[in-house]
Amino acid sequence: MLYLQALINGILMGGVYGVMALGLSLIFGVLNIINLAHGNLMVIGMYISYLLFVLLGVDPYLSLFVTVFILFFIGFFIQRFILNPIIGAPEEMSVLITLGLGMVIQNILLMTFGPDYFTVDTSYKLSSLMFMGLSVDVAKIFTFVASLIITAVFFSFLQWTELGRAIRAASNNREAAMLMGINVKKIYCVAFAIGTATVGAAGSCISTFIPTSQGVGILFTMTSFVVVIIGGVGNYLGALAGGLLIGIVEEFGAVLLSGSMKQVVSFGLLILILLFRPEGLLGRKSEE
Amino acid sequence: MKKLLEIDRLKKNFGGLSALIGVDLLVSEGQIKSIIGPNGAGKTTLFNLITGFYRPDEGRILFRGKDITGLSPEDIAFFGIGRTFQLVKPFLNMTLLENVMVGALNRTANVKEARKRAMDIIGFLGLEEKVKTPTDALTIEDRKRLEVARALATSPSLLLLDEVMAGLNPAEINGMIELIQTMRNGDVTILLIEHVMHAVLTLSDEVVVLNYGEKIYEGDPKRVVKDPKVIEVYLGEEYSLI
Amino acid sequence: MRNRVSTTIFFLLLGFLFLVAPLYVGGYLLEILIIVLWLGYLGSCWNIIGGYAGQISLGHGTFVGLGAYTSTLLFSRLGLTPWIGMFLGAILAMAIGLFVGFLCFRFRVRGAYFLLITMAMTEIVRLCFENIDFFGSTVGLFIPTMKGPTAPLLYQFDQKWPFYLIILGMTAGILWITFLMERSKIGFYLKAIKGDEDAARSLGVSAARYKLLAMALSSFFIALGGTFYAQYRMYIRPDLVMGIHFSVEIVLAPIIGGLGTLFGPILGAFLMIPLEELSRLLTDFLKHSFRMKGLIGLHLITYGVALILMVRFMPYGIIGLFQRLKGRWAKNEEIIRD
């Protein structure tokens, strides 16, 4: 019974893990950037929703739109001024730069909000549905649904819009895309911005049941990487599947070990995958 | 002449693409042998297989009679095969001298000895003037020479040169030709990949032509330009037939 | 020749000044110096794999923690003096480092993935230590205080200056080791691996073997720094000596000072710690004068910005910049003349 509960919770959580991973998969896959600031950007989203809730009473699933908007611009700015100049430089550079960026973001948040944890106390925060002896948090259900919607939007954008096609082109073959008149630098900014907007949306969704604090960024970053690697970099379907898998695995880990040891299981999985199947369980998008 | 390098029915696939379909090759000691062919014919793949960067799917590579198929690049360098890369890879975080010293350290653990040998090689390659130049400021010719110097410093018996003339002007090409001849006279067997026909015809004892992963000609350089199969392959391609 | 003599004299003088510092530098400043040297020491150890070999690890905190916990537990449970315990801790750290390195380098894991693996590793270890009571869990472990004349034998001193001398000696030691390594075959090979691994291998450099060596050296020596911390602070806790945050701190000094340079990590530490103290003072001042929440984290923001700027504009660190300006190629001229 306990396991069934864990399964449900894992799936619900997995949805938002998938969304987090989508953004990173885009950034890692298209731009080949190891974005160590990914989780910190998500935390910005959490704080935005928290503020809008506390100050204006806006529900996080609505302030999600604001978050997406703000984080899109933040991401565009970051790529335009900080990351674009180092296109083509060795990977380590982007790692260290995003590391620095993450530090800056985290500590600006620390300075502004202090080290405490904040919660968004919506009316439904504590309610749950009872279903065949299992209790399912309402907030988690909402988040799961929201995740599905965000994912659908993400996919449609990449698949059916011209911009989305341009992004896929630029990720496949930069030179060819340039030759076809695609402004690759601008595409990169948009791609990164979409990545940050997506993870910001995830932040809004998750703020309804996870406490917000400046320090949790690195955790989300690592978890996003686990999901992306397992699903295969650039494989968006894989990111979803990976999200669900990790969500479930973590919940089972919490049951078998303890709540705070959740990450031991998911991080351990990351290590194993990186060593033995770095292209992910579902395989990386093929590169030309 | 002694057999130095023997390649036996080498095959290599990448996913669905056949890069090499059963290539045989023999390089004798003291030879200069050239491999030519259109882009994508599998020439660099062959080099990567010989030097251990790729594993062949089928076939064997023998060096001095010893099976070196699938060995690591560092082991193959130890056994005496050196190489340059088509896109030069200088150690930008080290000086020119230090670059060559890395090669020299293949045969000695003594840094002083390595330095001395590196200086000799640098002199041989005519790079003494450039020793003070920062590595990232070196011209393309210097970088090509550095690449050769580094590989030569490992004291190879067989040197694989991958398009070492590319990007050089006619004077520089002649300089490189002289260099290669001098190296051969110094007991280094040379296997070249080249597009610059003038160099191929001047230098080679034998020429091998690859096309779509297959060997379509092997023999006298003077006759290669007249072979109908070769001409057909090159028709429409732009090559400097100086 | 003359250059070498004057350089040696310079360093002897500097060394002497450092040696007698406790005589004229008092409590607070001595504390700062100790922390600076300690961070510089940790950074110098990391520099071997991260700076010279170019394999960036954000998980070296693990080895510091393993050193600290091993010596502490051996002392508190078995009474074994940390002077011996620290070597056992270092051996354990080296074993783990070799294990992780073996898995990564033999499997030819690309640099970015090695980085993620080290990050995952250090968090896993930290979480384990935080959840196991034997290791003190989140409360941490206190090192049992020993009084009396035998205390020094148990790596305990009631004054600061012995600790200062110890860390000074350790730092001098790792600098000496790095110095020897730099001009040996190992140093050349590590730099070649960092420069271009494929080219290095084609010249006979066994990349996996030398990266492993660098990993072994860095993990062994950095663990000794863990024991030092434990004995100096008399208290350890997982988040203080392990985890990603701590591992990042270790890496900041070498990056700012200069990756793969001899004095880079020390220089970086000398810049970082005073900055941290300054921002702390500023925070206190603002808290009292303006009743602000304070500028907690200001120094970290500065580090972050510094990191971004450094990597973008000065990838060779401050020392690297120096070297390029001075035209280090003059060194070659000297060598040819010899």
Q: Using DSSP, what is the number of strands of chain C?
A: 2
Helix % of chain B is: 25-40%
Low-confidence residue ranges of chain B: none
Rounded mean pLDDT of chain C is 88
How many strands, which pairing sense, and closed or not: the largest β-sheet of chain B? 6 strands, mixed
What's the helix-strand series of chain C?
Answer: HHHHHEHHHHEHHHHHH
Uncertain segments of chain C? none
Helix/strand-derived class of chain C?
mainly alpha
> Could you tell me how far the N terminus lies from the C terminus of chain C, measured between alpha carbons in angstroms?
9 Å
Strand content of chain B: 25-35%
CA-atom Rg of chain B in angstroms: 18 Å
Tell me the domain tally of chain B.
2
Quick recap:
The complex is a heterotrimer of chains A (288), B (242) and C (338). Chain B is α/β, with parallel strands linked by helices.
Summarize the structure in words.
- The complex is a heterotrimer of chains A (288), B (242) and C (338).
- Chain A has 288 residues and is mainly α.
- Chain A has helices at 2-31, 38-56, 60-83, 91-113, 138-160, 162-172, 174-179, 184-206, 217-231, 236-256, 262-276; strands at 128-131, 134-137.
- Chain A has a single domain (2-276), classed as ABC transporter involved in vitamin B12 uptake, BtuC (Orthogonal Bundle), CATH 1.10.3470.
- Helix content of chain A is 73%, strand content 3%.
- Chain A has a two-stranded antiparallel ribbon.
- In chain A, helix 1 (2-31) runs parallel beside helix 5, helix 2 runs antiparallel to helix 3 and helix 2 packs across helix 9 (217-231).
- Chain B has 242 residues and is an alpha/beta fold.
- Chain B has 9 helices and 10 strands.
- Chain B is globular and about 50 Å long.
- Chain C has 338 residues and is mostly helical.
- Chain C has a domain at 45-144 and 159-256.
- Chain C is globular and about 60 Å long.
- The termini of chain C are close together.
- The model of chain C has no long low-confidence stretch (mean pLDDT 88).
- The B-C interface holds B 51, 53, 72-74, 77-78, 82-83, 85, 89-98, 101-103, 105-106, 109, 111, 114-115, 119, 131-134, 150-151, 153-154 and C 183-185, 188-189, 191-192, 194-196, 198-207, 260, 324, 328-333, 335-336.
